[in-house]
Amino acid sequence: MTGVSWSSLFCRPRPALLAAVLLSTAVLGTALSAAPPADAATAAPAAHPGVAPAAGAAAVPAGTAPPAPVSTPSTTPVPPSPPTNLTASEVRTGSITLTWTAATSSCCAITGYDITYYQEFGDVIFSATAGAVTTTTITAHVGPGMQLSFRLIARDSLGQRSNWSDRLTVVTPVTDTGPDTTPPSAPQSLTVGEVTASTVALSWSPSTDNVGVLGYNVYRFDGWYTSRLIATVSGTTYTASLPTSTPLRDIYYVRARDAVGNVSIASNTVEVPTTPPTPPPSTCRVTYRNQSEWPGGFVATATVHNLGAAPVDGWTVTFSYPGDQQVTSGWNATIGQTGATVTARNVDWNRVLAPDGSATFGIQGRWGVSDASPTGFSLNGAACSVG
Fold first, then answer.
1. Exposure pattern of 124-154 as b/e (b: 16+ CB <10 Å)?
2. 3-state secondary structure of 2
3. pLDDT by residue (tens digit) across 313-357?
4. Closest Cα partner for 254 from 274, 276, 227, 275?
5. Is 27 helix (H, G, I), strand (E, B) or coil?
6. What is this structure's pTM?
7. How far apart are CA 155 and CA 132, in angstroms?
8. Phi, psi for residue 356 in degrees, rounded to 5
9. How far apart are CA 333 and CA 136, in angstroms?
C-alpha cells in the first residue's frame, strides 16, 4: 500500500493509518453487501457477499454473524520505572556522592540518568547526567554549609524517560577535617504567634547535635530568590520586625548551628500575610467631651460603652492627654495620672457594664499650653473605638 512507512525504533502501528485501513475495509464491505447480484434471477444470495470461503472451509450459514476478530497484543513500549532509594552515601564540603536503585524497563536498555538539583531558597536549577550506573559524585555548584535538593529520571534506548525519583535534601558541612563535621538536626514545628502591625512572633522545637547546638539562625525569604539572615538567637523564639516595604511574599525559616559553624537543614517555612490582618471589631467605645474650658482649667466627661455581648464586671479606662493637662479631681471613678497617661477605675456602684450599657465619669484639671482632647482609649487593656 502506498504511503505506509515503518520505523524500527517504534513497535506500534500508527493510529491514523490503522483507522484509515479499518474504515476502508468497513466501507468496502458495506458497498459489496449493498450491490445486487449480476444475475438476480439465478444467483443465490451469499452469506457474506463479496467474501469467498477459503478452500476446504465450511460455508457460513445465512443469517449467522461473522466471527469476532482476534485482537492483536499491544506492542507499545513502556517507559522505564523511576529510580528509587536515592541517598547521599558521602557528603563533603565540595562534593556529594549520590546512590540509587536502578530503574527497570520491559522493552529496552536503560542508557543513563538525568539529575537536577538546586540550592534551597534560590531560583537557579542545575543539571548533570550519568550513564547506566547507580552512583555518581556531584561537585559543580557545591560548597560548604549549603542545603541542596536532588531528583533524577531514567532514560532508555528509545529516548523514553521515567517519572522523577523522590527528592533528596542534604546539607554540606563547613569542614571536612575539623573536630565536628556533622550538622545539627533540623528545627521542627516552626509556627507564627502574635502578629502586630510591625512584628511577628516565631517559635520552634529545639534541634539536636552530636556535640551540641549553639543557637539558631532566623531567615526571611521573599518567595522568589532572596533569602536573608535576619537574626541569630540562642533560644527557640524570636520576634521579627516586619519589612517596612511590602515584599512579594514574607516567608521565614530557621536553621540550627553548632560551635564550629555547621548548619542544619532548614525547618519548615511559615508565611506572614503581607496585608495586615483586619483587627477584630472593638467591643467598647469611649466618648470624651470638654464640658467647659477657661484659661488654666477645664472640666470634661468621658463615657465608656460596652459593645460586647457579655457584661463587663469591673472596668478600667486608660488614655493619654496630648497636651499638658493635669487632673486635679474627678467623680464617678477613681482617677490617677502618671505623666500624660490617665487611668479611671470604676467605683462600687458602677462596677458592672451590661451589654450595650455605659458609665460616665468626670474630670477636672488644669492646663497651660494645650487642652487638646485625647484620641485613643482602652478598656481593660483592649483598644476602644472613639466617638
1. eeeebebeeeeebebeeebebbbbbebbbbb
2. coil
3. 999 999 999 999 999 999 999 999 999 999 999 999 999 999 999
4. 227
5. helix
6. 0.54
7. 9
8. 65, 15
9. 80
In sign, the C-alpha dihedral spanning 347, 350, 354, 357 is negative
Q: Is the pLDDT of residue 299 over 70?
A: yes
Query: Residue 62's pLDDT is what?
Result: 45
Would you call 21 helix, strand, or coil by DSSP? helix
CA–CA distance, 62 with 260 (Å, rounded to integer): 93
Please tell me the distance from the alpha carbon of residue 86 to that of residue 149, in angstroms, as a whole number.
11
Report the alpha-carbon distance of residue 131 to residue 137 in Å, rounded.
Answer: 12
Q: Report the number of secondary-structure helices (H) and strands (E) in the chain.
A: 1, 25
Compute the average pLDDT of residues 272-284.
Answer: 76
pLDDT at 297: 95
Question: What's the grid cell of residue 266?
Answer: 532548614
How many CB atoms within 10 Å of residue 5?
Answer: 6
Distance CA 306, CA 355 (A): 6
Map residue 216 onto helix, strand or coil.
strand
Q: In the chain, where does DSSP find H-type helix?
A: 15-34
The region of weakest confidence among 19-33, 51-65, 299-313 is 19-33
Per residue in 132-161, pLDDT (tens digit) is 999 999 999 999 999 999 999 999 999 999
Q: Whose CA is closest to 130, among 168, 102, 89? A: 102
